[in-house]
Amino acid sequence: DMAEPIQQLTRNNSPQERQSIPFTVMQRKEKLGDLLYEKRQYGKAKWACIKMKEKQYEQSICLGFMKLMRYICEQNSSGLYLGITIPIVTIVHTDESRSAVTRAVTVAYYLPEALQEEPPRPFDDDIVIEEWPPTIVYSR
After folding, report:
1. InterPro entries under this entry (predicted)?
2. Which three-class secondary structure state does DSSP give residue 56?
3. What are the residue boundaries of the structural domains of the chain, listed by start?
4. Which terminal CB of the chain, N or C, has fewer other CB atoms within 10 Å?
């Protein structure tokens, strides 16, 4: 099922073609010289997002990522490979008391700068294009 998107990604994506999302580092946490995480602020932008709720949140992340890869690899209204931006963001949701992780996750792909004004429409109805305000992300 993922063979074509993976082949497309391999053909069209070398490390120098990956677009890093512009951000400002707000905080870094290190331990014994190793980076544990960064707290980053990303500017206002459009993201392709999918919300998943499988039996385990890890399954939700994998399935959401696979659906986004199909969108990136030609299953969109432009019919073109959109290119990779890094990182792909995963939002892990918690219960109402914020004391436990739920199965629900949102996997999000930052649309490359050239597509910000008019993003290609996804063929998959589960994928939505959202404009996020400036956003705080923890990265590791």
Report:
1. Reg_factor_effector_dom_sf, SOUL_heme-bd
2. coil
3. 45-126
4. N
| Across 60-74, 85-99, 106-120, least confident range | 85-99
60 Cβ contact partners less than 8 Å away, ≥ 6 residues apart: 52, 53, 54, 103, 104, 105, 107
pLDDT of 102 reads 80
pLDDT tens sequence across 10-49: 555 554 467 888 899 999 999 999 999 999 999 999 999 9
pTM of the model: 0.79
Instruction: State the DSSP code for 96.
Output: T
Within 10 A of 64 (CB to CB), how many other CB atoms are there?
A: 25
Say which CATH architecture domain 45-126 belongs to: Alpha-Beta Barrel (3.20)
Quick check: 85 and 113 in contact, CB under 8 A? Answer: no
High-pLDDT (> 70) share of the chain, % = 88
Rg (C-alpha) for the chain, rounded Å, is 16
Vertex 137 angle, CA 87 and 51, to 5°: 70
CB 83 within 8 A of CB 100: no
DSSP letter assigned to residue 55? S
